[in-house]
Amino acid sequence: MIIAIDGPSGAGKSTVSKAVARRLGFSCLDTGAMYRSIAWQALQDGVSLEDGEALGRIADMHEIGFSHEPGDPLPRRVSISGVDVTDAIRTAEIDRSVSAVAAAPAVRQALVAQQQRIGRAGNYVVEGRDIGTAVFPEAELKVFLTASAAERAHRRVAQNERRGVGSTDYAEVLADIERRDAIDSSRDTSPLKPAPDAVQMDSTGRTIEQVIERICALAQEKG
Ligand code: C5P
């Protein structure tokens, strides 16, 4: 079974996906981490973020891996060609660069193929922007999770403070979220939009716990 969770930055997808996966005994796949890893590699290699073909070659050449911490069933560490980039892909520089990388059709083609291979191997909660529309259009359950931009920026600042990486400046984080929303929603290839059969949930003013409960209940109805 595939549960697709799409939505804009900071809507709570990662927290919700991990919690739902834990409760249902599923694995989870953070596809945003894959686009971030390609952005990291492009910056390392000095590749222009406007050169879609060169970005696509990076996505074709490098293997992205997910690994587990001891005793944790959910994959938490991300690597690209064997280099651990778990923290390095959460910086403000990657926040600024990733949407340009994700708009390149050749990058999407390479990563979508990898995501389909991973997800088809078992029961997965897959989070991203285009999971219900492009990666797994046949997913048994599709959720489109949103929240106001202001609430998403507050949550992202709190998350960055906890992790000790990324910007903790509210105005900077809000501006980045609004800029990424605009690029992600207007790109030609797989723009951010709900699948026609997605259940839409607005988490503004709701607790994450309520969102998790609702998704688990819907999954149990389907499964
Ligand atoms: O989810 P996260 O904020 O880590 O995603 C980073 C960026 O990767 C998004 O802003 C978007 O540009 C891109 N992305 C995408 N498609 C996905 C997941 C992420 O285009 N399925």
Automatic annotation (TrEMBL):
It catalyses: CMP + ATP = CDP + ADP; dCMP + ATP = dCDP + ADP. Residues 3-220 form the Cytidylate kinase domain. It is found in: Cytoplasm. InterPro entries: Cytidylate_kin (IPR003136), Cytidylate_kinase_dom (IPR011994), P-loop_NTPase (IPR027417). Its EC number is 2.7.4.25. GO terms for biological process: nucleobase-containing small molecule interconversion; pyrimidine nucleotide metabolic process. GO terms for cellular component: cytosol. Belongs to the cytidylate kinase family. Type 1 subfamily. This is Cytidylate kinase. It comes from Senegalimassilia anaerobia. The gene is cmk.
